[in-house]
Amino acid sequence: MDADPKRLFATLKSICVPLLKNARLTPETTPNAASLLADLLQVLQSVPDPRVALPEGLVHYIFFPISGIIRQNNPTTIPDHVMERILNVMTILLQSWWWTIESATRTTLLSVASRCLPSGDRDSDDTAKQYDEDTQLAAVRCIWEILRDHSTDDGTTEEEKILAAQQISKARAISPPQLVAILSSLLLTTTSANFELQIVALKCIRSLMDTYCGEDLTPTVMPGVISSLSRLLSKRTGRSQPRGELVRESLRAIQTVIVLGIGDDVCAREGAIRIIGTLDDFGDITTVPPSSSRHPELVQRTPSWLNATSTQLHNALNTMIPPLINHPTAAASEGLIDFCSVVLSATSETLQRSQTLLVLPLLILMLHPIPSIATRSRQKMVEILTNSNAKTSVLEALKKLTNSTISNLPQLLLSSQIERLESGVKVLTAVSILSAHGVSVISKSISHVLGPNGGIEKWGWNLLEGLELGKPSVFHAAPDYDVLLLQNGPSDRIAFPGLQMKHIQDSDTQQALATFFRSWGAAAGDDALFSVEWFVKYASNGSNTTEVSALWCAARLLEGICGHTLGDNQDTRIIVRSVRLKQHAKWLSKLISLFWEQDGDEDEGAENPPNEEGDNHQIIEYVKGIQQLDKLLDWGKKAKQTNEASLREQQKLLHRAQSLHLLALSSSILETRFSATLLQSLYPILHSFVSTDSFLSATSHSTLLHVSQASGYASPANLLLSNFDYALGSVSRHLTRQRLDMHAPKVLVILVRLVGKSIVERAGDVVEECFDRLDDYHGYRVIVEGLIEVLLEVVKVLEQESTPAPVRDASRLDHLAKERYRKPRDDLSEFCTWLENMKRPVIVEEKEDFGPVPRRAWGQEGKQEENGAEPEPEGKEAKLSPNQVLVQQIVDKAVYFLTHSSPLIRARILSVLTFSIATLSEIKSSLLPSIHTAWPFILNRFKDSEPFVVTEAAELITALVEHVGDFMDIKVWDDIWPIFRRLISNLETSDKQYALTRRDHLGVPWTSSAYTTSHRLYRSILRTTTLAVAELVAKDNVFWEILLTCRRFLSKHFHEEVQKLARNLYTEAAIKNADAVWLALKGAMNESLPFLSFSDDIRQNAEMIFTSIDGELGERVSGK
User: Per the confidence metrics, is the pTM higher than 0.70?
Assistant: First the structure.
């Protein structure tokens, strides 16, 4: 509305005059009065600033008809909606009138508004009128405008502040009974279900206590106020907690009551306590405090009153505060922080029992997930510990709380009280955070606890008993060692698999416990290295549950000390580590590396436990007759022994995983200087890398990536290549008779695999090491298998470095196709030419003898004598390269193991020969003698009982045909094909009995599974036969036999891959002799030719082959 005073007055006049006429409310005038009040309220609400637009005279003009309604009518007869509008009008008027309102008018308005609220007087009439919530809300708003201090509004001048102080001083003349009555009504109003009504009522209570009740009346009303508001805070609707705004306003009101009623200053002034801050205060101990001039009916502050009140208040706070710590709203958390900080500062002497209770929320909320709340709580706590008078008492409370939490931590770990455990861990973490923000006393205390004089030998034992760790059910693991990732470069995200605590299933609580150890390690600094050393030394005694827990504690403490958390890839801080920390990291990495050797010694000792009792107590039992069965109870004993063994093995794996964590942290501390410890620490990492347990392997994977990054290498491959001597030396030490480790060959395999192509320069050292160990341990099957696998990896790498084999050119296929059509004509022309030459007479020419002639060109004789050597004849093969010499040595050494008793070794030897052919095929003299010598043994491998050995033998034949086809021309058709034919016949019989073979409705077997043994053999046979048909010249009878035998692979009952390989075979055969292919396939589909007929349906694949013959070959011939 326009703020023009004249127009505003005219509008108000048109409303106030009729309203005054209808001041006497009757059934006839009530509607008019209600309508006029609504119009008046609408006009006042449209005024932009009542303080400016409503001067005192205009306010009196408006209030006159309002006061007429109040005077002329009994308040109980005024309808609710009329009373509501009257109170809303007065609320707006008080925004301008409060500065100059008379005391009598203020008292009248308070009386009228308070009558609309529920009465707290027990002696009042129960039939008193009860107003609706809208009217009560209007009444509370009016009371709020009367009671609140308007000097805190924006834009208030100094003169207005002085005037406001005078008004408040006048308002304090309200009698205590009236104040108590208003306070009781407001407390009853807070129980309403109307949220806005509750909030305004709480604000009125806080203003009433702060401004009007003051220090004199507060002790009298404090029990009732705190009791009512504490019930309000504990009231729940179903499972939901009170709303955040309601909690904050309630705590503000309670905070005001506590400070005014039982604060240190007021209690010291009235003699309830004696505060001694200096030596002069001891002289005033006997001084009698001044007597209070308050009303005798009001409560007096005395030591006995303080003792009783503080006890009751402590019980109330103990009921009220703990449920609010985990309140889900930010408003409630902020209100709790302000409440605890203010009460702590103001009642350090009067509420000494409650200091721990008030400190607890501040500490827990320092770790709140909302940063603003955590920062607010930390700032309040630091302010109390540095600037307030309560510093000493709060520090004492912190010490008491910390000691009790540490003492109860083992019991909490073993119990199922997750909430208490999480709260305790957060308290300990928050205490360490305070030490990092200027509170040096706490930092010294933590250093003392974790240092040499902290007694970790006492509390550490109990802590380890409660921390029982296990493998998680789900964790991030790199598939198949993720070797390509390790070769190419480090991962952006290094994820160490976590652990699962037996007694703590909640992941947040587990993370909070880890954060506690890190924060205490960071707070104590280098002094905490004593605790780390104690945990590690304790863990070196074995690999039980407590030893694993000790390593976990040591790793978390070390993370805090060095300022780096494993798996935290976002941390790019540059931290300067002390010399003591670096020396400790060197010692730690060397000690951890010894754990693997100790585990080997324990395993050897566990296999043959000593019999201390001797043979004196052996029980000899002679049983005759039927063999007795195992009893049912004996099965349980065996199962228990199996579970115990499995648990020991699991704890051993966890022990190694946590040891790898410590190695990774040591690399973070030493950085580039960690390379000096790789001789000892590299083998444990690689040894765990080849573990069959996915958890330990994944941990080793992450450790290797972490060590590479920390040491300044671009990838683990670069780390291993730069320190290859250390790696090979560490493996060699574990292949000696003194430190023989059955897993050492596997470590060497993964070392070669990780380094990749760069191993070529060091391959000689690896091969030499393998040869020496083969000579030493040729009778140990497990070691021989590992060493042969190492040689296989070396050969694979060298094959990648060798010159690639020439690829079959498509022009050769065109040449063969054209040659098939051109050959009959050329043969006829050659025969005619030969016949003509035979008819001609033979003329014998006489040879003339010219005598001796020089063997060389003129002038070359002397040069030969000077050089002293004959020139190399043309066509001589080139010399072997170093890689080829190495492969030749491997082949020569491997041939002797073709007849080994282990099928796995036989298969790997065949793989070694297969991968070495590409490297040695350029110089056939280095390969063919060994193949010729081993040929009988290779043929015998086709008779092997293990199918995978037969498959590897077929792959070897394929490689030989591809690279040295001339050498294999006769051997394939005379030796290999009969074996293939026999294998196909045997597999056809076995497929009918194989479990994975499906059958159709007619009972015909379908070998369509790609996971059967026969499938892999079929694939190798077809590839070898196809390559032999394409590269070599087969005899006609063998060629025809191949066409007839391999027709079964064109059946739809075979896997699609087998059918495709069979089609390729017949396509290659068609290049040599398309007519034979056509006859063999057409005859199979024609029942009139029984000697060529075939039972299976091959029509679909045969049509595809015919299309290929007519299409591709025809185009090649036509394009000549």
Answer: yes
